[in-house]
Design a protein that fits this description.
Radius of gyration: 17 Å
Order of helices and strands: EHEHHEEHEHEEEEHHEHE
Largest sheet: 9 strands, mixed
Shape: globular
CATH architecture: 3-Layer(aba) Sandwich
CATH superfamily: Acetylglutamate kinase-like
Number of helices: 8
Strand order of the largest sheet: 4-3-5-2-1-6-10-11-9
Number of domains: 1
Length: 236
């Protein structure tokens, strides 16, 4: 039994690096693909938004002299590279999938529309959504919120390197404590960096809950889908 029928899974580009300093760790990529296929085999409809920070982050590029718009466009292309890698890894496991892009780049992927994504998911394909929103000045977190709302997902699952939302960064502050549940207003009032403000506001206004969990531990994604109490549940 699964708790969710349709999900939007958000993966950061940095998580694909594994123990590397840059690029894609093949072992981490394969682990993610195996976890995703496991829940697909359970009948869950899956869309995935993936970041590009392991290759290029537009905002950091502006500190080095890049034009912000061009930098963000470079970041969008980085997400397409990661999406292709994930598509290939899923394909190697025999899992049908479809890569959609928010900016036109056929034949790399098909141009995104809500109806293409939903139709593909209903056919049992995993949909990989790349290039963010297709616009500069928006993060892939905002892209995740937008796509999750559009495809009528039951929940956004934010797979990270930590096992939930904490009072502070647990990698830097050993006294940080974890929230089991937290509201969007609390995240804003406490200044917690779960997602950027635009994404948080969109999720709140459209009643899209988020579960923040540790994706790097194999089996956790399946546990979340089954409704086990891991991670942090973010609600309106």
């Amino acid at each position: 039994m699964t708790k969710f029928r349709r999900i939007l899974l958000k993966l950061s580009g940095e998580s694909l690096m594994g123990d590397k300093q840059y690029g894609i760790d093949e072992a981490r990529l394969a682990s993610y693909a195996e976890q995703i296929k496991t829940i697909a085999d359970m009948g869950v409809q899956i869309s995935i938004v993936i970041g590009g920070g392991n290759i290029f982050r537009g905002l950091s590029g502006t500190d080095k002299g890049f034009d912000r718009v061009k930098g963000d466009q470079m970041g969008m292309l980085a997400t397409a590279i990661n999406g292709l890698a994930l598509s290939s890894a899923l394909g190697a496991l025999g899992q049908r999938n479809r890569l959609l892009t928010a900016i036109r780049m056929e034949p790399v992927g098909q141009f995104y529309s809500k109806w293409k994504a939903i139709n593909a998911m209903e056919k049992g394909e995993i949909v990989i959504l790349t290039c963010g929103t297709g616009n500069p000045f928006f993060t892939t977190d905002t892209g995740s919120a937008l796509r999750g709302i559009e495809i009528e997902a039951d929940v956004m699952l934010k797979g990270t390197r930590v096992d939930g939302v904490y009072t502070a960064d647990p990698e830097k502050d050993p006294t940080a404590t974890k929230f089991d549940t937290i509201s969007y207003d609390e995240i804003y009032n406490k200044g917690l960096k779960v997602m950027d403000l635009t994404a948080t506001t969109m999720c709140k206004e459209n009643n899209l809950p988020i579960i923040v969990f540790d994706m790097d531990t194999p089996g956790n994604l399946e546990k979340v889908i089954k409704g086990e109490n891991i991670g942090t549940y973010v609600h309106a």
